[in-house]
């Protein structure tokens, strides 16, 4: 395969690997902005839709070819990684742009910024590009993987934007906000290009004008990408609506099985959507149908359970609302579900959780198949660090000990430290 190649801006190198890990790295210290890696899959210079944009709020491309793997910190160094499987890239895609955005400052305050292309099979480094000339940029195209005569190559680009992730995305046909609200993308001033002799390939052609802006509409959380920032997608005000819907599927051995089809039925199953909360003043409590503890949106805990649904229908289900206008008074909120009656466990239950901010994209995920005798499941944990709200997919089935309520079980698992008394609804 040969030795690793440290690249200059504008140069390119062949990528003789079936799949690669793309590592963006930088040094961290007090005052350093948070950096996020992203990738855009292009057809003739632009995305086909918002689905061709892979980043922290949309971590897996529909084809499975590009994945955002997330960050690792070791000492004073941070890496944010993407994986690219060339065999799964759709034939129409001819370029994958590797970009970075800075949150909370400019790239002029980020030291040691670089990108490495690593063979995912044997771990060998194929190429590395270091950039040290950033100033006012808040987004950066570090490089691009591109198809040339049937072979993939990597080009070091080093193109900066002072309009952040939104400006970069808009330049390739994506607008995270409404098009009329999006300022025209402005490329940050660039230093003079290196001499022609230092370049082994012509600069990439100019990006075609934006034909149609698209909007990110949904974020799906998975085991590999379990969390999302509400502030980074503008979803930190208004009402956050949490919905749980479910379907119970049973397989019968009678006439339905003889006809070779599964028979879907809705059992008399009663699930309760609940929330444990902790406020910044230290107060803790629970919002649930038991004991008519439905909560309130206009006073603490700023969480309200809409009602008690026994069907699980997609159009209704169990609904709970969090008032994000009072997010500064919320420290953490754990959304969970208990089986009140109708079943001994969540087995055969197919459930979907959706969190819909009043502003920003919907967040959803499915529950895994339950293989333990669980009557309580932690769904999602919403935490605040004073600046940002993070939604973490839990999807964690818990098994209460004999004589211990589901509520006590979830309290113990997450260290809430509350006193519980029997209740009814």
Could you describe the 3D structure shown?
With 425 residues, the chain is mainly β. Strand 22 and strand 23 form a beta hairpin. The relative contact order is 0.12. About 12% of the residues have low confidence.
Beginning-to-end CA distance, first to last residue: 68 Å
The third-level CATH topology of the largest domain is Lipoxygenase-1
**What is the architecture of the largest domain at the second tier of CATH?**
Sandwich
Number of domains: 2
Strand content: 35-45%
How many helical stretches? 3
Task: Round the mean pLDDT to the nearest integer and report it.
Answer: 80
CATH class division of the largest domain = Mainly Beta
Give Rg in angstroms: 25 Å
- Low-confidence stretches are 177-186, 191-202, 206-215, 250-267
Q: Record the strand order, biggest sheet.
A: 13-23-22-15-20-19-18
Sheet of most strands: 7 strands, mixed
| Overall body shape | elongated
CATH superfamily of the largest domain: sav2460 like domains
The count of β-strands is: 25
The portion of residues assigned to helices is under 10%
SSE map:
Blueprint: E1 5-7, E2 12-14, E3 19-27, E4 34-42, E5 53-54, E6 66-74, E7 77-85, E8 95-103, E9 111-119, E10 125-130, E11 139-148, E12 151-161, H1 164-171, E13 218-220, E14 227-229, E15 239-248, H2 255-258, E16 270-279, E17 284-287, E18 295-296, E19 303-305, E20 318-323, E21 330-341, E22 349-357, E23 362-366, E24 376-384, E25 389-398, H3 406-414
Parallel strand pairs: 1-10, 13-23
Antiparallel strand pairs: 2-12, 3-7, 3-9, 4-5, 4-8, 6-7, 8-11, 9-10, 11-12, 14-25, 15-20, 15-22, 16-17, 16-21, 18-19, 19-20, 21-24, 22-23, 24-25
């Amino acid at each position: 395969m040969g030795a690793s190649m440290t690249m200059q801006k504008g140069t390119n190198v062949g990528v003789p690997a079936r799949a690669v890990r793309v590592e963006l790295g930088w040094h961290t210290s007090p005052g350093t902005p948070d950096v996020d890696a992203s990738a855009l899959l292009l057809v003739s210079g632009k995305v086909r839709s918002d689905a061709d944009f892979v980043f922290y709020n949309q971590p897996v491309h529909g084809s499975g070819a590009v994945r955002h793997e997330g960050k690792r910190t070791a000492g004073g160094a941070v890496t944010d990684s993407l994986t690219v499987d060339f065999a799964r890239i759709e034939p129409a895609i001819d370029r994958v742009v590797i970009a970075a955005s800075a949150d909370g400052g400019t790239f002029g305050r980020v030291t040691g910024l670089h990108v490495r292309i690593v063979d995912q099979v044997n771990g060998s480094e194929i190429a590395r590009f270091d950039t040290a000339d950033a100033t006012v940029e808040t987004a950066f195209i570090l490089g691009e993987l591109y198809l040339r005569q049937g072979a993939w190559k990597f080009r070091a680009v080093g193109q900066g934007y002072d309009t952040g992730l939104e400006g970069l995305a808009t330049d390739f046909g994506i607008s995270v906000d409404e098009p009329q609200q999006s300022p025209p993308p402005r490329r940050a001033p660039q230093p003079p290009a290196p001499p022609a002799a230092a370049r082994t390939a012509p600069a990439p052609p100019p990006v075609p004008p934006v034909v149609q802006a698209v909007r990110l509409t949904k974020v799906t959380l998975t085991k590999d990408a379990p969390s999302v920032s509400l502030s980074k997608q503008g979803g930190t005000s208004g009402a956050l609506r949490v919905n749980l819907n479910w379907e119970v599927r049973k397989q019968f051995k009678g006439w339905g099985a003889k006809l070779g089809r599964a028979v879907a039925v809705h059992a008399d199953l009663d699930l309760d959507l609940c929330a444990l909360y902790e406020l910044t003043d230290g107060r803790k409590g629970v919002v649930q149908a038991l004991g008519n503890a439905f909560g309130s949106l206009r006073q603490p805990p700023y969480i309200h359970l809409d009602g008690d649904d026994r069907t699980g229908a997609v159009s209704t289900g169990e609904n709970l609302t969090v008032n994000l206008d009072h997010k500064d008074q919320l420290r953490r909120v754990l959304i969970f579900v208990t089986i009140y009656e109708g079943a001994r466990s969540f087995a055969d239950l197919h459930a979907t959780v959706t969190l819909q901010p009043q502003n920003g994209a919907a967040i959803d995920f499915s529950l895994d198949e339950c293989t333990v005798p669980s009557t309580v499941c932690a769904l999602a944990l919403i935490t605040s660090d004073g600046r940002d709200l993070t939604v973490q997919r839990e999807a964690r089935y818990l098994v209460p000990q004999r004589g211990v309520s589901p509520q006590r079980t979830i309290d113990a698992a997450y260290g809430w430290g509350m006193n519980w008394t029997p209740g009814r609804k």
